[in-house]
Amino acid sequence: MSLTFDFVQPQPEPAADRLTLFADVILPLPLPKLYTYRVPFELNDQVVVGGRVIVQFGAKRTLSCIVAAVHEHPPKEYQAKYILEFIDDAPVVTQPQLKLFRWIAEYYLCTLGEVINAALPAALKLSSESRVQLHPAFEAETNPYPLSEQEQKVVDALSTGEEGKSMTFTEVGELLGIASFHKYIKSLMQKDVVFLFEHLQDKYSPKVLKKVRLAHQYISEAAIEQLFAQLASKSKQLDVVMRYLQRVPVYQNEHANHKGLEKAALTSAPHLSPSAVNTLIKNGVLEQFDQIVSRFPLDEDDAEAKIHFTLSEAQQTARQDIMRQFQDKDIVLLHGVTGAGKTEIYIDLIKQALDGGGQVLYLLPEIALTAQIVTRLMRVFGSRLGVYHSKFSDNERVEVWNGVLSGRFQVVVGVRSAIFLPFDNLALTIVDEEHESSYKQYDPAPRYNAREVALMMANFQGSKTLLGSATPAVETYYQTRTGRYGLVELTKRFGEAGLPEIELVDTRKSREQKTMLNHFTPELMAEMERKLALQEQIILFQNRRGYAPFINCLDCGWIPKCQSCAVSLSYHKHSHELRCHYCGYHERMVAQCPACGSRNVKTVGFGTEKLEDDLKVMLPAANVQRMDLDTTRAKNAYQQIISEFEKQNTNILVGTQMVTKGLDFANVSLVGIINADSIIHYPDFRAHERAFQMFVQVSGRAGRKGKKGKVIIQTGDPEQVIFDKVIRNDYLEFYEYEILQRREHGYPPFMRIIRLTVKHMDVSVGERAALQLTQELVDRLGREAVLGPEAPYIFRIRNFYLQEITIKLSREHTVLRAAKADVLAAIDLLRDQKEFKQVRFAVDVDPM
């Protein structure tokens, strides 16, 4: 949809007896309040809460926004402008969504505009930019005003080409080659040579198939015989008609001809001429038409239960226990060891929810998981299943959004952004791998945790929620101990598979004895060779991507740093680049040190790319594949890598934490954790929890379907307490140890945490702002509640210097709500000061 209009659109005043309506709208901007617009009288019947409208905001901005409320009360602080255009005649955002969005804004201390920006697919948000076009009354010959050289350039550009040509402000600036071009546009406007307008383009475009069908006059046998006679000397056109009749049973089913055939089936077919197809269309033998089709086509032959499975006795018991606990609890944790068969229980529960007429949301932490699980779910639920994640195109995401609105998709499997979909009849919400930090949104606002938002959405809609994990978050397990959540446990793996054998290997000894083979201990290397000989597969986990964390001149000590961030540049061998993993800055790899000129420049440390490179040399017969952020940027890259591994075309899969997720590979018998120490020794109160979860999860990839797997953990500190708990797979003992530490030091689940980050390009301004903000917070909340400010470990990102303030608060709802109001008030106080106008404040509630 394309909408064009002038900036000023005078509206007739309504008669005194007419009802005057106003609409509060959510603008896609970080504004603390809703803005009110006047509804044109003739459109009173069209305005709908949850629908999109176009409004003018400020002098030159035209935006699409969501109607949040309709009423008869004009704003007192300003004169309401008119809504310019209505986009939807039905809501694209439901009332339950609006309620949830308000809760997100309030809880995570952000604005509704920021929530809408995160929630709506980009294709549902209209974009605009001021454009310049020749005035319809302008004639060069009769123009009374002289034009400067720059003005004439603009006029010539707008006069060239098609009628009605327009240019954006950016294009005018590029044409004139100067930064201060606006004065020429203003002058041309005053001379009535050009006018400005806003051009809004609805980004969503349906998928359209070009199809052809036989013209109606040719569908009788006599007519077709006459056509054959006419085309007797035109063999290429005759071949096209014959091919069409072979593919479309015209005489047996006239409706089949109405549906037609994809044009590409004729133009791309071997031995057929595309020009012959176009000639037949031109001569009226074939009719060409467009058909809007879904990007998720319905498979009419798709029987609902293409796969059949029977729950084991343990799974049946767990399922019955879940349903029993759902009778008096809304949230249940399914704590099952890796490989226990949680997915089969999920599928059974989803079937029951659908039979009751409800909707189901199935959340996963990573796109990597969706590829494998979606295949299984599709075989059960067919066309009722929608998939939603960030690798989808804008148009695909809109189709899922609309599919949920229309009721076409009753089950949606997706990553964290799926919690924004327009559900209005949720019966069941499943949060798989609920402990995962991937559910947390870090930047930009809203910095929400999809697990917590899903729980609140389920609460609003009266839905039951099932949380699943082999290594639950400490906060989640604590809720089962207090009785707020139900708890169901699966302690054995599905089928005959047993838990893997875990072996610790001391890298210090191997280095002292000089037996390390690159970054592999002899024990891990020997085990890999043995598994490859048995034609079994291997997963290697290294929590760092790239070839090397940094490079170093061995003569003068020079290390290349990012120009915008306080980090060293990582070396990526494949692209031969030094790259910043925070801002994306990159430069070519150097052959000699720019500081001293030495060529003695070496890589230090190792990442997944280096491991992949070494393995290809050390084990040349093995097919090695890497799965990390660098190899999975393309839309279907995850699926391709996983598919190759499932087909056993890949022998060794090297990856970052992506490989630790709930992937299920039947032939994996060995998992290697290359550098366990880098995960344990991290300055964060959740470091041990994350390490335990990661080690257990990646260990769970080894050994399925009757095969007992093996896990080798390489560490320089095998006496670490956490390893004993991992080897015994003793989550309960880990939890008891961890919860005591949290209670003693005042961390979640006993306290709530809010982290404030103060950012400015001038380090001294940022420090002063952080100190003053800290004092304001201390005055409101007390010194014991406010920690900091202090510079984080990485103190500069994208040229902004950072200072962090941590606030610890009681979990009581009233205390938390009042404290959040104090935080916002303190930030507003600083924003009002001229010195701190350019300071940025990021608020992270419940940081991970």
UniProtKB/TrEMBL annotation:
Instruction: State whether keyword Chloroplast applies.
Output: no
- What cofactor is needed? Zn(2+)
Q: What class of enzyme is it?
A: isomerase
Looking up SMART domains in the UniProt record yields: DEXDc, HELICc
Chain residues that bind Zn(2+) 1: 553, 556, 593, 596
- What does it catalyze? ATP + H2O = ADP + phosphate + H(+); Couples ATP hydrolysis with the unwinding of duplex DNA by translocating in the 3'-5' direction
Which Pfam families does this one have?
DEAD, Helicase_C, PriA_3primeBD, PriA_C, Zn_ribbon_PriA
Q: Which parts of the sequence belong to the Helicase ATP-binding domain?
A: 323-490
SUPFAM superfamilies xref list: P-loop containing nucleoside triphosphate hydrolases
Question: What is the top-level taxon of the source organism?
Answer: Bacteria
Domain Helicase C-terminal, by residue range, is: 577-755
Q: Where does Zn(2+) 2 bind?
A: 562, 565, 580, 583
Q: Which UniProt keywords apply?
A: ATP-binding, DNA replication, DNA-binding, Helicase, Hydrolase, Isomerase, Metal-binding, Nucleotide-binding, Primosome, Zinc
The UniProt note on the cofactor reads as follows:
Binds 2 zinc ions per subunit.
Q: Which Gene3D superfamilies match?
A: P-loop containing nucleotide triphosphate hydrolases, PriA, 3(prime) DNA-binding domain
Q: Name one GO biological process term.
A: DNA replication, synthesis of primer
Q: What is its EC number?
A: 5.6.2.4
| GO CC terms in record | primosome complex
Q: How does it assemble?
A: Component of the replication restart primosome.
Tell me, in a sentence or two, what this protein's role is: Initiates the restart of stalled replication forks, which reloads the replicative helicase on sites other than the origin of replication. Recognizes and binds to abandoned replication forks and remodels them to uncover a helicase loading site. Promotes assembly of the primosome at these replication forks.
Q: Which HAMAP family match?
A: PriA
Q: So what family is this one in?
A: Belongs to the helicase family. PriA subfamily.
What's the protein name?
A: Replication restart protein PriA
Lineage of origin: Bacteria, Pseudomonadati, Bacteroidota, Cytophagia, Cytophagales
GN (gene name): priA
